[in-house]
Amino acid sequence: MKDLAPILLFVYNRPWHTKQTLEALSQNELADQSTLYIFCDGPKPDVSQVNSENIATTRQVIREKQWTKNVIIYENETNRGLADSIVKGVTEVINKHGKVIVLEDDIVTSKGFLKYMNDALDFYNGEEQVMHISGYWFPVKDNNPPLPDTFFYRSTSCWGWGTWKRAWDKMETDAPLLRKKLADIPGGMKQFSMNNSSDHLQQLERNISGEIHTWAVKWYASVFINKGLCLHPNISLANNIGFDNSGVNCNTEDSGQYYWNELASYIPVNKIELSESKLAIKYITKFYRRNYPFILHQMKKLVPSGLKEVIKKNFLGKPSLYGKNSLSYLKYYPRYKETTITLMGKETKIADSASFLFMHKEIFKKDIFKFNTTDKTPYIIDAGANIGLATLYFKKLYPESKVVAFEPDPKIYRILEHNIKSWELSNVVLVNKALSDKESFVSFFSEGADGGRINGDENGTSTIQVPTVSLRNYLDNQPVVNFLKIDIEGAEIEVLNDIRNSLQHTKMIFVEYHSFANKPQRLEDVINTLTANNFRIYINAPGLSPENPFQSVPVISGMDMQLNIYGIKNDYQNS
């Protein structure tokens, strides 16, 4: 049997990213024959409750499946940081196996990634000059003449890579020493920074000053100083989904769009000349100069705002992710990063890719809110409207309906307003308030997606004060409420108790029940309120629901279970 390289995955506190990475990896050819080492970094001394939960959930995610043939998990009790974790982890495993394939928790791979990496590691095993195998290549627009299937150039890539012990033994982590050795090479500084087009030298300088502590630029410098070659595919086999401010070294700028690829299913590895591709250097230099974020940063400081937009639009060549296949792009689009797509032919803003895809599937694919009525102008309440998908669904279902939509989060409400206008929906009333049992103000945790909630335990800049209103005001004076949807992230118990005597005219009700870990479960309050109002109840668990609660219970955003509860008035159901 072929001696496959072990895979190393470094994770910390990003359960969603980790799961995308593992799901993609598990679908790789050779995954069922490979050994996977997962290194879990530990909490920092001042860890917040949210981060503590995310660390715990990430450690549950990695145990959800047998992702590869063998899975070996290491969990740190304290925080090492990404740079030290990778250097130490790679060193430990490579000393044992002689070669490695390395992933971080935000790298999704195509099905042929492992085969390409193993083929390349085997093919160039004896070539001392070849020090690094990359599974990623930039989405360069220039491809005339085209690059060959594989090629060499000077730079490493940390987004899905591999190497051998013989090369890793030359890894130097002393940034000042690396800087000195680069300066000793004639023209070394310019060559290292891709003809002064990239920020590699600045990264090294920032490591020296202590501003950052990273490993990748030190690995690149080590390879460069040793005149190493790095193999790259002409079409990427990996993408980075971490440009959402959730990672250590990825920000919320538009960088993710510059580096996004349509992935190759596989790239063959054949014999090529052991020399750097001048064409690759030409293309990557142009790419960096076109898209290099440092340029945008400097431009923001020097150029008037109106001119910035003209320059970005006409000269920076920023590729668009949002064509007719925008939903498929969103599958790996960074979380909590606002963007615009086309939905049903209309411009639609979204706040978060993952929650949008889940809601879109539930609402438009599964039709969970589809209901029947003979009323031509049904009255519908959308409590917890988020960006408006349910409201849009209701208006498509019954164009003459009146919809009252509540959304307390100011940031999400702004998107909701935009979408309602863009979708050209009429007879929709928007209310920028949280639902409660009285008119007042409450602390509200603005999560940035579909998980904003009142009465949260979170502290910090994401907790704000929002006004409240009672839902009774919108029920008592209505002769008929055809459909009442309540999805308000844990406030449903308080609101249902408040409207217990106001549901006599409501025909159908949907409640998303939320069970918070380490807090009393009050499911019976929901059941009692609905049965007391003559509703026939149906329940399912489409989202967060532990499959093996006797073994482990995942906790996401403080919750250990969610239920969809459907209520239909008995007299309405039998009519």
TrEMBL record:
GO molecular-function terms, A-Z: methyltransferase activity
Gene3D superfamilies documented for this protein: Spore Coat Polysaccharide Biosynthesis Protein SpsA, Chain A (3.90.550.10), Vaccinia Virus protein VP39 (3.40.50.150)
InterPro entries reported in the protein's UniProt record: FkbM_mtfrase, Nucleotide-diphossugar_trans, SAM-dependent_MTase, SAM-dependent_MTases_sf
Transmembrane regions: none
Any one GO BP annotation for this protein: methylation
SUPFAM superfamilies from the UniProt entry: Nucleotide-diphospho-sugar transferases, S-adenosyl-L-methionine-dependent methyltransferases
PANTHER family recorded: METHYLTRANSFERASE, FKBM FAMILY PROTEIN, SLL1173 PROTEIN
Name of the protein: FkbM family methyltransferase
